[in-house]
Every structure is written in C-alpha cells, then in structure tokens.
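REQUEST FORM: STRUCTURE PREDICTION
Request ID: SP-0412
Submitted by: Lab K.M.
Chain count: 1
Length (residues): 468
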Amino acid sequence: MSPGIQDTIVAVSSPTGRSLHAIIKISGHEAIRCTKDIFVPAFPIDLEAIPTYTSVGGNIQIKEEGIEIPVVLYVMKQPYSYTKEDVVEIHTPGSSLIVEMLLNSIVSMGIRTKRNIRLSQPGEFTRRAFLHGRIDLTQAEATMRIIRAQTDSELKVAIEQLTGDLSQRVKQVQDDAVSLCSYIEAAIDFSDQDIELISAGEIMGRLEVIKNNISQLLIQPETGKVSREGIDTVLYGKPNVGKSSLINALLGKKRVLVSEIAGTTRDIVSDTLEIGGIRFKLMDTAGMDDTKEIVTSRAIEKTQSTLKKAQIILLVFDFNADIGGQLRKMKLDGLTGNVIVVINKCDLSKSSYFPELPAELKKYHLIHTSAMTGEGLERLKEILVESVLGGQINLSSSPTIFNVRQRDALQRSLRSIQQTMESVKNNESYEFIALDLRTAIDALGEIVGEVTTEDILDKIFSEFCIGK
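STATUS: Completed
RESULT:
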C-alpha cells in the first residue's frame, strides 16, 4: 500500500484564477469529521448520519480570522465516491483569498487534532481511485488526457477511454492468453500420464488469434479504428511490370485483368487483402508511359492523385528490364506514403544475379517477387504488416489512442506472443512455451495496472494537477 494512503487529503480541485465558484475536495477517513468541526449548517443536521450524495448549505467558521464563509457541502460516503473513501466537496465563492483561508484552516485544524490531514500530492485523488479499484490504470491516464485535451477529438477519445471500453478490449486479449496458458500449464502437470490436454496445433491456432487481436489494438488510430476499406496500398510502375498479376497472387484469386498487352489497366482497380487482422486496400494503377493518348493521360493523372493519398506505395519493377530506365519514366516527386520496392518477374530470369539498384531506391525496403511462382509473396506480406505495427504508416493526423507507455507494453506483448509461436514451431517443451506466454500476459497487465511498480505509478500521477 502506498505511503500516506491512510491520511486524509485536501486540495483545491477547481481551476486557479478568478471565478465565481471554487471547490475544495477532502478525501479520507477523517473527511466528514474534520469538516464537521468547522461547519455550521443552515439547519440542524448531523453530517455523519446523512446519506451519501447529500448537499448541505451553511457556513464555515475561520476562527483564526474571526469570519464565516458561506458554503455548500456535497457529502459522498465510501465506497460511493470517486476515491471509494469518504469525500466532502466544499463549494465556495471563487476568491483566491477565501480559498487560501479555508485550506489553511482545514490543515491547521488537522494538525491540532492530530487527524493526519494534509495537502494532497499531484494526482493523489485519482491515484487513490486506482488503488481502491474504482478505475484501472488506463482510465486513470484517460483522466489526465481529459484535463489536457485541447481539441474536440482529443476530448472525445479521452472520454471513450475513461468509460473503460479500451481496458475491456485489452483485458479480453489478456483473458484469452491466460486461458491458453492455464491449459499449457495443466498439460505440463499431466505430462507423465500420457494425457494430451492441448495439442501444439491448437496452441498455435489460439496464439494466432491473440497475435491478431494485439495487432488490431496497435493499429487503432484516434477514431478507434482504421477505415473499413483498410490501409490505402497503391501499386505503381511502368506498364506490364506485373502489378495486376501481383495483386491477383496476393489475393489468391483473379481479381484484376491480366494481359501481355502493355497498359491494360486504365483506371484504379482495388480489392481488400487481410493479413493478420490488418486490412490493406490494394489499388492497381495505370502504368506510367510517355503516350499522349487522352484516355491514358487522364488515367495517369488519376494515378498521381491516388499516389498522393496513399499510405503504402509498392514501386513495382520488371526484373528483366533495366530498372534505372524504368525509374526514369516514373514520377516519384511528392510521395508521402511508406515506400516498398518490389522487383517482380524474378522467375523469368535465367540468371541468379541481382543487379544493383539505383541510388534513389536504396533507402526503401526491397523484396524480390514472382507472381507466377509465389516467390517473395509471404515476405512482402510480412513487410506490409511490419510497416503498420512499426509505426511507419500515418494512420491518422491525430495522436493515437494509446500513450507511449501503453503502446510499449502492447508491442512487448506482441513480441512475446511471436516468440511463443516460435517456441511452438521449434517443438520446445511446454515449460518454455508457458514462460514466453506469461511474459506477454504480464505486459498486457501493465496497461490496465494489474502488473505495475511504485515507480511507474509515481511517474504517471506526478503529471496530474493537484486536486485531481
């Protein structure tokens, strides 16, 4: 339990500066008793006997100054308050002088009566709400985001996070991992009895689901989801480099017309590819050439417009033609998406020699593929997913739902799940598999505060305002 958690704390919880109204909040075992000592109700009433959520008007006597201050008290009894402790809110005129006198009187009275009443630390009210189980750590951090929100979208997302929806989604993934781990650990206990409680195949299948769910959480932008169509992924290159064939091969179906005649594609053709729970909207564009044909020119204009909006751009080249020559025919100015260089038609080459890339392309991811044989397609899919999970894709102009601490925990949990899957593939013992899975579970627990340290809590709540 945190030091000082038994103390009764007091702080101003309304903004500083001039106002018609100010609020002083008291929370702890002595909250009602210490208020009772200085409060004179407008009509006879016992603060300790009244039900929770009761408001009472009256005056607070400042004996040191010989004055009475008109106030309204809002009494919330444990466990029905924000902190799950007895809480009294003192609503008073917003004069900074009055507020200071009230604070001094409450703290001084606490010292005289030895009731352990003190000024709160930054974020201590929210910290107590977390420690007493009123909210989880994700919701606590959402409280800070609400306080600091400067736009409607920031406020909207912070409120959604405060409702606990995000926590529930993380908790569901963690519960799935805990359930799987319990089966694996039970299988370890019965390993000497020749009883197979869960097979390696079933473990792998359930790990794949968990991995996909974590991946979905990692790609959530501020709106809470990527567009229904998926991440805009444009294939761009000279005519007849195999863009249409490549899309068909990735999709595993004939979605796009394929022809040996160069320049068959005259418009943007799209379809959706889903990899590990992440959706990519693949768009086949008109090939770039020098023709002045009106229809072709308009198609190329549309291609350029699509490229400017693309989140991922696959620059597709024919392995069997001069790559530098192909590059000179392409307009690469102003590309803002994440670029991947795809050298296609490798199956048609009679040589295993890979020519050196032009300098302009060396800064990008490179993959050699064959739409005909399937060479490199799995690796291309992996690079697409890595681009998203590695934060290389601008999913939204707004900040992400998860803060840095939460995203780091998610990424560590994903790496641990991937390591667990490797352990299963390598036929390692269930003890090692369970150990890797436990690491992922603990990382997920850090997000909602099930696994945490005092240092993490100190860092999070120190950034709050005093009185929150």
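NOTES: The first strand starts at residue 8 and ends at 12.
Reviewed by: T.R.
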